[in-house]
Automatic annotation (TrEMBL):
Keywords attached to this entry: Membrane, Transmembrane, Transmembrane helix
Membrane topology: Multi-pass membrane protein
Domain Major facilitator superfamily (MFS) profile stretches: 25-422
Coarse class of the protein's main subcellular location: membrane
PROSITE patterns, A to Z: MFS
One GO location term (cellular component): membrane
UniProt lineage: Eukaryota, Viridiplantae, Streptophyta, Embryophyta, Tracheophyta
Protein origin, superkingdom: Eukaryota
Naturally occurring in which organism (per UniProt): Salix viminalis (Common osier)
Protein name: SOLUTE CARRIER FAMILY 22 MEMBER
Record's keyword annotation contains Calcium: no
Length: 422
């Protein structure tokens, strides 16, 4: 396929008006982030319950808890799978296409979510091992779904609205985490109302009824529901035009897909025999010296700041209940029956999560609307503030001396940035 056809097609994609299909793509891709967040963080909602069910010590004055090594494995094994899944499915998505890999990751997430809830064994250790097995493969599927959702949205978007659409997709993470807390509250409250059990201080063994074993399983398995609901829509999505044109080298098929999904007539790009208009110097591999020379600094800056943000973001979401208990935001004292305690933990954290993720959505919006401020020295200060807004944290007020120091540091950063751009 002549390169001129590819360039013309990309130009039409960048200049295409926002269509109803763009909104559908935002919803479908956003539900991927919604499901990813629910599946990753819902485990933190049930770890206390797992400790009471499987690690209760008879005669102990306190309810059972997961041993530290078991708690670390249950909470963190999905993140290990996520790392492996991102590397594998990222490579596979470039080989066989975004659409095919999108379906594979979704099926893997559905199967692993259900498998997590069906983790059985003859001993507590066997149950935890089975749970970790399915959680790893769940994370492996999330590792592919997470970047593909953003990539598909970016490749469908036009130049004008690309930032807004990607921000909207990422904002669905907050709704997924919030939904996890609401589901945990609803399930535990239902069991608490239907199956009356005594408080732990009255009857330690009776406070954890046999029905409690269903609570955590239902919460984990419900993570398969949003993925299953979007499977059909994902499979109906055609391959992204940018992948079809640039990677599969089939601009004619890409034009047909654009015409079908966007409701506009796109001129088919036929073989023209014209000279290639894409400079060969612009074609280079990800690990090539040319890529490192041109974009190595950009990659390092983006990856390093994302890494630092995720340390706080994932730690806070996975260990939120422990943090709240330590600072006294969750009530201590009487150890009541397990379903009521699960509800109480969620009741204390859901309002905070609502506020935090609402500010995160606002942070995405502000970042998109004022992204051009990065070209101004003051824009670096605003970006620094927005990073904290996106993560749901407010900046402490600065005294004049510290404020002046921050302005100077951002000015130096801006000058360094301009130097590298030049």
């Amino acid at each position: 396929m002549a390169a001129k056809g590819q360039v013309d097609l990309l130009l039409q994609l960048d200049q295409a008006k926002t269509q109803l299909y763009h909104i559908k793509a935002v919803i479908i891709s956003g539900m991927g982030f919604f499901t990813d967040a629910y599946d990753l963080f819902c485990i933190s909602l049930v770890t206390k319950l797992l400790g009471r069910i499987y690690y209760q010590v008879e005669g102990s004055p306190k309810p059972g808890i997961l041993p530290p090594n078991v708690a670390a494995a249950v909470n963190g094994v999905a993140l290990c799978g996520t790392l492996a899944g991102q590397l594998f499915f990222g490579w596979l998505g470039d080989k066989i296409g975004r659409k095919s890999v999108y379906g594979i990751t979704l099926m893997l997430m559905i199967i692993s979510s259900i498998g997590s809830g069906l983790s059985f064994g003859s001993s507590p250790k066997a149950v935890m091992a089975t749970l970790c097995f399915f959680r790893f493969w769940l994370g492996f599927g999330i590792g592919g779904d997470y970047p593909l959702s953003a990539t598909i949205m970016a490749e469908y978007s036009n130049k004008k609205t690309r930032g807004a659409f990607i921000a909207a997709v990422f904002a669905m993470q907050g709704f997924g985490i919030l939904a996890g807390g609401i589901v945990a509250m609803a399930v535990s409250a239902t069991f608490h109302a239907v199956y009356k059990t005594p408080a732990y201080s009255v009857d330690p063994l009776g406070s954890t009824g046999p029905q409690a074993d269903y609570v955590w399983r239902i919460i984990l398995m419900l993570g398969a529901l949003p993925a299953a609901l979007t499977y059909y829509s994902r499979m109906k999505m055609p391959e992204t035009p940018r992948y079809t044109a640039l990677v599969a080298k089939n601009a004619e098929k890409a034009s047909q897909d654009m015409s079908k999904v966007m409701g506009v007539e796109v001129e088919s790009q036929e073989e023209t025999g014209e000279e290639k208009v894409i400079d060969k110097r612009n074609s280079f591999g990800l690990l090539s010296r040319e890529f490192l020379r041109r974009h190595g600094l950009h990659l390092l800056g983006t990856a390093s700041t994302w890494f630092l943000l995720d340390i706080a973001y994932y730690s806070q979401n996975l260990f939120q209940k422990d943090i709240f208990s330590a600072v006294g935001w969750l009530p201590r004292g009487q150890y009541d029956e397990c379903n009521g305690r699960t509800f109480q933990d969620r009741q204390g954290s859901v309002p905070y999560s609502t506020l935090r993720h609402s500010s995160r959505i606002l942070g995405h919006s502000f970042s998109y609307r004022s992204h051009r401020s990065l070209h101004d020295p003051a824009g670096w200060i605003f970006l620094h503030d927005r990073v904290h807004v996106c993560s749901g944290h407010s900046l402490p007020p600065l005294d004049p001396e510290r404020k002046q120091h921050r302005i100077h540091s951002h000015l130096w950063t801006h000058l360094l940035f301009r130097k590298f751009r030049a």
